[in-house]
TrEMBL record:
Cofactor(s), names only, from the UniProt record: (R)-lipoate
Swiss-Prot/TrEMBL keywords: Acyltransferase, Lipoyl, Transferase, Transit peptide
Residue span, Lipoyl-binding domain: 39-114
Species this chain originates from: Nyssa sinensis
Protein known as: Dihydrolipoamide acetyltransferase component of pyruvate dehydrogenase complex
Alphabetical list of CDD domains matching this protein: lipoyl_domain (cd06849)
E.C. number: 2.3.1.-
Source taxon at top rank: Eukaryota
This protein's GO CC annotations: chloroplast envelope; chloroplast thylakoid; pyruvate dehydrogenase complex
Catalytic EC class: transferase
Stored InterPro entries: 2-oxoA_DH_lipoyl-BS, 2-oxoacid_DH_actylTfrase, Biotin_lipoyl, CAT-like_dom_sf, E2/Pdx1, E3-bd_dom_sf, PSBD, Single_hybrid_motif
Length: 421
């Protein structure tokens, strides 16, 4: 949980007393303390070191609700995850200044907290005046000249007749698209050959429709080489993905914006690449042996990488200030995971010390949390070495982009059968 109410009470100095009012002039006698209205601003918290703005996903509480210290108030979408944010003080949620779906810069006010019910009205008044001032400033800064505004209105006015266009998704599965090669993991292909399963009729459940081992096993268990039913004729796709309006401009999501900034920052780092081919017979044999116990290939690769880094600590180091090396005391393997509209790198901490079975269970937990956007900062920002695996998509090789703040990243491609002795 992140504490977002981290300001002190408003000071009593007249020059700094923004939210303080006296209860009654007659009570202001020498020797008696002044009674102040205590209204605090609720700020947009910084949920990660790279976060510059946040989006309000939902308000857990509504205006007028009583809040207790440590209670969740709002869910904020950062550049990495959705997080519940809790209050650091008791009081009442007096005024919400940024509605659900709104975006606010880190450190800007998103709501006001009143200490008592009597102060809610005053807080609402201050929120309204603040909102009016901001709106007026934004309007004056962005208003085009009258003639340009009229032309813009004319250009954006709706036509007399509006044609509704509906994009129909094709029934052809992306893993075995018409005229395209089948996308399946290397192990799924090998398993399909052993079980005599025709992959062209198997519906993949992996990322982007990739066929994975469990899909092949399900097809074999069903006693059919093709588990999909006869496809219903569907309109031929126009080439555009369903839901995309051609010619439109869609702004980045919070996560996409963060990925973009990180990648641009990474390009400023001098890097070099080294690649070579390894024989995976022993790895494949081990995976086949322990797969039934819940071990994933990702966990195996992470474990193997961590054990190699124990022998080569220089590769696990980083250079953050351009003047010195940091030799990390822990080996934390960050693994790239594709999400809807973005990318994140959950971290397997102390991967060299954790046994392979626990590591696999932890990895499944991290992936589930990542896709639910519930990762905590320490679960995605503490990596010392990054692993990116595109082998499950049939990719032979690729250049991985170095995440900022780390020293190395390893790109893993697909294994291929070899006739070499």
């Amino acid at each position: 949980m992140t504490h977002l109410l981290n300001t002190s009470f408003i000071p009593s100095s007249p020059s700094l007393r923004r939210h303080s009012i006296l209860s009654s002039p007659s009570l202001c006698t020498p020797g008696k303390p002044q009674i102040q209205v205590k209204i605090r601003e609720i700020f947009m918290p910084a949920l990660s070191s790279t976060m510059t703005e946040g989006k309000i996903v939902s308000w857990v509480k509504t205006e007028g609700d009583r809040l207790s210290k440590g209670e969740s108030v709002v869910v904020v979408e950062s550049d990495k995850a959705d997080m519940d944010v809790e209050t650091f003080y008791d009081g009442y949620l007096a005024a919400i200044m940024v509605d659900e779906g709104g975006v606010a810069a880190v450190g800007s006010a998103i709501a006001l907290l009143a200490e008592t019910e009597d102060e809610i009205a005053e807080a609402k008044s201050k929120a309204s005046s603040s909102s009016s001032t901001s709106s007026s400033a934004a309007t004056s800064d962005s208003s085009p000249p009258p003639l340009e505004a009229a032309v813009a209105d004319l250009a954006h006015s709706p036509p007399a007749a509006v044609v509704k266009v509906t994009v129909t998704a094709s029934s052809v599965h992306p893993a075995s698209g018409e005229g395209k090669r089948i996308v399946a993991s290397p192990y799924a292909k090998k398993l399909a050959k052993d079980l005599k399963v025709d992959l062209s009729g198997v519906l993949g459940s992996g990322p982007m429709g990739r066929i994975v081992a469990k899909d092949v096993e399900a097809a074999a268990a069903a006693g059919s080489a093709a588990v999909s039913t006869t496809p219903v004729a569907a309109p031929k796709p126009s080439g555009a993905s369903p839901g995309i309006e051609l010619g439109s401009v869609v702004p980045f999501t919070t996560m996409q914006g963060a990925v973009s900034r990180n990648m641009v920052e990474s390009l400023a780092v001098p890097t070099f690449r080294v690649g070579y081919t390894i024989t995976t017979d022993a790895l494949d044999a081990l995976y086949k042996k322990i797969k039934s116990k819940g071990v994933t290939m990702t966990a195996l690769l992470a474990k193997a990488t961590a054990l190699a880094l124990v022998k080569h600590p220089v590769v696990n180091s980083s250079c953050r200030d351009g003047k010195s090396f940091m030799y990390n005391s822990s080996i934390n393997i960050a693994v790239a995971v594709a999400m809807d509209g973005g990318l994140i790198t959950p971290v397997l901490q102390d991967a060299d010390k954790v046994d392979i079975y626990s590591l696999s269970r932890k990895w499944k937990e991290l992936v589930d949390k990542a896709r639910a956007k519930q990762l905590q900062p320490q679960e995605y920002s503490t990596g010392t070495f990054t692993l990116s695996n595109l082998g499950m998509f049939g990719v032979d090789h690729f250049d991985a982009i170095l995440p900022p703040g780390t020293g190395a990243i390893m790109a893993v491609g697909a294994s291929q059968p070899s006739n070499c002795c």
